[in-house]
Amino acid sequence: MGIINFSKEKCRNCYKCIRNCPIKAIKLKDKHAQIIETMCIGCGNCIKICPHNAKEIQSDVSVVKQWLKNEKVVLSLEGVFPSTYYMDHPRQYIGALRELGFSIIEETSIGGDAVANSYIKDYYSNNQFVIASSCAAIKNLIEIYYPQFVSSLSKQVSPMIAHGKILKEKYPDAKIVYAGACLAKKMEVLEEEVSGIIDAVLTFDEIDVWMKEKNIDATKSDVEAFDAIGTNIGRLYSQIGGLSKSCVEDLDGSRKILQIDGVADCILFMDEIQNLDKKYWIEMNACEEGCINGPGNIHSRLSKYEKVEMLQTYIDMNKNKLSVEKIPEIDTKRSFHKRPVHHLGKVPEEELEKILRQMSKFNKRDELNCGTCGYDTCRDKARAVYWNMAEIEMCLPLISSQNEAISNIIVTTTPNAIAILDKTYRIIEFNGAAEKLFKVKKEDVFHYNFMEVLDYDPFRKLNYEKNCLYTGKGIYERENLVFMEILTYIPKEELYMGIFIDITKQEQREQDFLKMQEETLSMAQRVIDKQMRVAHEIAGLLGETTAETKVTLTKLQKIVGNREDEF
Predict the structure, then answer these.
(1) Half-sphere exposure (CA, 13 Å, Cβ side) for 340?
(2) What does the DSSP 8-state code read for residue 246?
(3) How buried is residue 140: exposed, middle or buried, by Cβ count under 10 Å (0-12/13-18/19+)?
(4) Which of 77, 117, 201, 322 is at 20 to 30 A from 47, Cα to Cα?
(5) Quick one: which H or E segment has residue 498?
(6) Is the model's pLDDT at 350 over the cut of 80?
(7) What's the whole-number mean pLDDT along residues 134-146?
(8) Neighbours of 370 (CB within 10 A)
(9) What are phi and psi of 394, to 5 degrees?
(10) CA 254 – CA 49 distance, rounded (Å)
C-alpha cells in the first residue's frame, strides 16, 4: 500500500474521491478506488471528502510509540497546532504531547527561519519565475504535471527538512519526528535526496486518535513551553502568503508577488503561467488558507476561519519573542527532478468512439457531461477507460437507464399485476396485467388514491414492525376475485408495492375438491353405517340358531343317556 489509499471493504463506488481529485490520480478497478502512486501529489482532497471512512493512511504511530520506550525522540511541531482544538491557551497542546511521552519538542518554524535568507537570494535571481517550494504537494504537482517549470522551483528544502537537519546536528543519536497537518510530508521524507533526515511523520489526526486512546484531553492539559522556538518569520510560512510576508515583502519590488491557494486554482494558474511576461515571485499552497486546512487535521472541529483566527492569535502572542538559542548552520539547498507520467493523454479517435458507444453515447446529445463518474465530460471518462483508469459501469446515467429498461421489461411483461404507490397511496405505476385484473385503464387511475379508486385496501395488512412485508390471500369483492397478495413498504423511497396474483380459479377448484371430499366422506359414512346394521342383523340370526341347536343337542344327549341305563 502507498502512503494514501482506500479500504476495499469500505469503498462504496460513490466516485466522490475521483470527482474531487484535481489531477485524477485515482483509478477504479473491480469497483474499488485505488490511488496511483506515481500520479498522486499528496494533496489529500480524497481523504477530506470520503463519506465512507474508507481512507487508509500509512501510519508511523506504532513505531513512534516503541521509540518513546527505548530511544531518545525529538518532536518537530508544525506551527499550525493551535488549529487542532478549542484551547484556552495554544500551548496546552504541548502539555498534551508531553503526556504522550515526548520530552523534547521544538517549533518547526526554526527551520523556516533557516531557509528565509536563501529565499531572499532566489528573489534576486535571473529566473523569470521563482516558485516557492515549501508546499510538498505543489512541488509534486510541478515535478509530475508541469516538469517544464521544475527549473523555476526555488532550490530550497522545506522548513520541515531544514529543522530536521538542525535537530540531527543537535541530537545526533535521537529519532526525529515531525507532526503537522500535511499528508504530502509523509511522501516528502521518502525522497532520496532528503531521506533519513526525518525518521517519522505524524498527522494531527493520528495524534488525536492516540490522545483519545490515552484519555488525554488537550483542552484540559497544562500549558507547557517549547524546548526551542523560532520566530514569526518561520511561523508565517503555514499561512497563505506567509512566506512572502516574512521574506520578500520589503524587497525592491523588482518582482510581482502572486499568492494562490487550493490545488484547483494552482492548476489553473500553472496552465496559464506561460502567458506571464514579467518577473514573478509565486507562492502556492495546495490547501485553502494554507496549512491549517491540511488533510491531516480534519478531526478538528474548528471551521476554516476559526483555524485562521487561532493561528493568528498565536502569532500575535509571540510577535515579540525571539529565539535565544544559537541555530547550527545547515545547507538548505536541494534539487528537484522531472518525473512526468501519462495523464489521460491522447486516445485514437476510433477507440474513443468505440468506448463512447459502449457507454450508450451514440451522438453529442447522449454526452450528458454530468460529472457523476468523477470526470468533467463523457469524453474525459472514455479516455480514462482507455487508459484503464475507469470502468464503463461508472456511468451512472447508463446504469440508471439500463436498470430502468430492465425494470420496465419486468414490470410490463410479468403476468402478475403490479401496483406501486407513493407514501400517500397515489398510484405511480400500474402495469398491463394490473389493468386487466382490476378491469381499469392506467390513465384512469394514475395518481389517484389506490384504495379510493379501486375500493380495495390490502395495505392495511402491513405490519411495519415486521419488515413491512405481507404475503397472504385477499378478496377483491368488487369483482368477486381471490388474490395471492405480496405487499411491501420501502422506507427509503417511501413507496408501497403490491403484487397481485389471481387465484380465483385455483381457489374454486380447491373449494370443489373440498366439497367432493366432504361428499365422499359422507357416502363412506353411510356405507359403513349400513354395513354395521347388516352385521348386527346377521349376528342376531346367528345367535338364535345357535341357541336352538344347543337345546336340541341337550335333549338328544339325555335320550341317549337314558337308553344306556336300561341295558
Answers:
(1) 10
(2) I
(3) buried
(4) 77
(5) strand 495-502
(6) yes
(7) 95
(8) 13
(9) -70, -10
(10) 41
The C-alpha cell 506551527 sits at: 79
Angstrom distances, CA of residue 368 to CA of 40, 170, 397, 421: 28, 61, 9, 30
420: CB partners within 8 A, 6+ apart: 427, 428, 429, 430, 495, 496, 497, 498
pLDDT per position as a tens digit, 203-256: 999 999 999 999 999 999 999 999 999 888 778 878 777 777 766 666 667 788
Specify the length of the chain in residues. 567
CA nearest neighbour of 78 among 105, 103, 59, 60: 105
Identify the DSSP state of 449. Answer: B
**pTM for this model (two decimals):** 0.73
Mean pLDDT for the stretch of residues 99-113: 94
The overall longest dimension of the chain from CA atoms, in Å, is 178
Q: Provide the grid cell at 422.
A: 407513493
pLDDT of residue 81: 96
Element (H or E) spanning 163, and its range?
A: helix 159-170
Q: Do residues 26 and 35 lie in contact, with contact meaning Cβ atoms separated by under 8 Å?
A: yes
Residue 481 makes CB contacts below 8 A (sequence gap 6+) with 437, 475, 502, 504
E strand or H helix at 5, and its extent? strand 4-6
